Amino acid sequence: MFVRTASERDLETIKALLAETWHATYDAIYGAQRVDEITTEWHSLASLKARLTKPNSEFLVADDGKKIAGMAYAAATSDAKVVMLHQLYVRPANQRAGIGRMLLDEVEQCFPEARTLRLEVEQANAGAVAFYKANGFERVGDTDNCGTGQSGIPALIFEKVLG
Q: CA–CA separation, 5 vs 60, rounded Å?
């Protein structure tokens, strides 16, 4: 398994990976219909394609040459010392194999000027919360609107000091 920059040819696979992972993780929390709505809006091909060219960002995939097992997307905030990890997802069948850690390591290396890595995580996603805590993140707050806009989805805010 290796980590590389995502390309436009990966987007359909990434979209499917996100839908699979979201359903496996969030159907029990939000229900399958709401997960369909969220993935349709947040993980559309247009949305994913826009991330490929966003300045000061990294869109990564974990690839074994045959399939993409995980993805991560992070972007610098208006403060270049703070990077927001917007997405880090690993297919359910590939979880607990070190892929999330590989993606996280690469994100950290892609922003050498950054001093803080921030993310939002659903409180009920115990696996993700444990993963981030085990990798040096600490809870610093919470939000009522995970992601962008007014999602109405509450989340915990975690940060990790870099460098």
A: 4
